[in-house]
Amino acid sequence: MPLLLLKDLPRYECLLEGAKVFPELDPSACEAYLHLLRAGDEVFSVTERNLAEHTISQGRFSVLMLLWNSTQRRTSAGEAVEPCRPAGPRTPAELADAAGVTRATMTGLIDTLERDGLVRREPDPDDRRMMSVRLTPKAEDFVAALLPAHFRIMARLMAPLSETERKTLVSLLTKILQSANELTSTPPALSASS
Amino acid sequence: MPLLLLKDLPRYECLLEGAKVFPELDPSACEAYLHLLRAGDEVFSVTERNLAEHTISQGRFSVLMLLWNSTQRRTSAGEAVEPCRPAGPRTPAELADAAGVTRATMTGLIDTLERDGLVRREPDPDDRRMMSVRLTPKAEDFVAALLPAHFRIMARLMAPLSETERKTLVSLLTKILQSANELTSTPPALSASS
DNA sequence: CTTTTTTAGTTAGCCACCTAACTATCTGCT
DNA sequence: AGCAGATAGTTAGGTGGCTAACTAAAAAAG
Q: Who has greater pLDDT, A78 or B54?
């Protein structure tokens, strides 16, 4: 449960009320914003609860998935196929980058994964600064056993939406993601108006 | 940044590929799921960054908003109006409930808010187990100064969507929220299929 | 009127996120 | 060759989430 947001979303009339006090308040934008965070949080915590039953956190699971993705690529790379991702992350720095966390955070995650016997750190023979992180066989079994339930949860979450609605949702979310990225890459003009 | 999720979303072909290995993988559901978490995370972190410029976290901000909502209600309650919320939370337990965190977490948040001079704890005269949490004048100014920028961010995030699209988004998210709540309230049937 | 149970809040300890500072190594410039 | 700067990873310390165990007070049971 990452967010900490209002559990009960405000009613639309309240937003209209608020817009009288704050002219900056765009009611429909605010409503969409709150619903997005609320739904994201709830969906997140549903999958998190499932993962927790297998005594693993979202963060550690993401690391396992990234590494597992890499091994899948290697093992099935007899032919020149699988162009899904360029290489597959191996070092802590690559993993941190792929997962969108800092290297310090990744150090901590790998620490606990290694303590639990799911990954191993191996020094890079060429560059002694670097480490290579590898899944243990135990982790591969673990992930393979975990994924079916994980995918079932996703399917159930999205069950009420038709294929068309899913596509619509994805395209709307993509637009929002783009505008968020623009806001991110444009640090100025924050408290000042446009 | 709560999530720790893949920064680059997998391409749809990869999901189709994965569905061959895992029959439980519903590609369009998975795509919608990943986009939802990704967009939610990004939007969250955009607003978080804005709040951080005012040296406050999302969690503390939520607490301030809940309390501020209450005070607004009281001060303008000369007439019998504002039915937006029944009462407005005042005690740590009510705040925790409204914010969707545990009481222990709320204790920590109030601790830091009190340390920063934004709230005060006052003992309840009737029930000596209870505390009443109040905003300081400093906090009221702080929130009032913060909100315009906060609302502007929301408006910019949602700028690419038309009013119709926003309504569509809200209705799709509401459906997902409902199915998430059903999954939450139905603890069994997790790893087992339906 | 005691005793038990429930409730409000806190404390303690874990995890995962962050930033900043540090060590070790490699790279590049002169 | 030798040193400055870049890079990989870790460490240290802070925050905000959690659960579980605790204290104090109120409510319920006898």
A: B54
